[in-house]
Amino acid sequence: MKTIFILLVSLMFLASCSPRLSVYTEELHNALNFSEAEYKQIQFYLNRELVLERAYDLEEAGIKDGKITLSIERDLQRIVIPAKTRGVALFSPDGKKLAVSFDGASDDRFLIFGPNPQKGNRYMLKASQWQRNYGIVTYGGMKYRTLPGAEHSTLMVQLDALNKQKVESQTVRGRRP
Q1: How many CA atoms lie within 13 A of 138 on its CB side?
Q2: Which terminus of the chain has a lower count of CB atoms within 10 Å, N or C?
Q3: Sign of the CA dihedral 82, 83, 87, 90?
Q4: DSSP 8-state code for residue 50
């Protein structure tokens, strides 16, 4: 019994240590009305794992023993951005969309997020084109294809609401005739 109690208290403590994330929406973006420099100070998070792939083929042709031989090699470059990866806004291309980098190695490696009217104006991954369930995005100056599910990739922020309330209280003692 004591072990179960300790386990429950430990789980509650660990759960309280993780940040409480809220979806970043156009309404929040408009209400904040921050400057571009202020947006660079916000810690953004990705709500789900995002995988980018880039494939390129290397072909060789030759003649061996009177036969034409074709050798096709396919190289696949994959970039995985895990769920809840921290990101920073680098710039805003149009005042609404945000270029967010999750990679500290280079400012060239960013993805564009913007409000999606069909999904409650959540800030979601923008692609140059969507085909069925995958998109084409530019990352580090190169075109990548997203894996299925990327169309649901949303920006999250840690939002602490501070409610301040001033209360004036008075106790009435009653009244006699």
Answers
A1: 6
A2: C
A3: positive
A4: E
Report how far apart the first and last C-alpha atoms of the chain are (Å, whole number): 61
pLDDT(171) > 80: yes
Residue 101, both tokens: 């980098």
Distance CA 54, CA 32 (A): 37
Q: Output the pLDDT for position 177.
A: 84
State residue 19's pLDDT score: 64
pLDDT in tens, 79-107: 999 999 999 999 999 989 999 999 988 89
Q: What is the 3-state secondary structure (H, E, C) of 69-93?
A: EEEEEEEEEEEEECCCCEEEEEECC
Q: Please, which residues have CB within 8 angstroms of residue 53's CB and are 6 or more apart in sequence?
A: 76, 77, 78, 79, 144, 145, 146, 147
**Closest to 123 (Cα-Cα) out of 92, 168, 161, 77:** 92
CB 135 within 8 A of CB 68: no
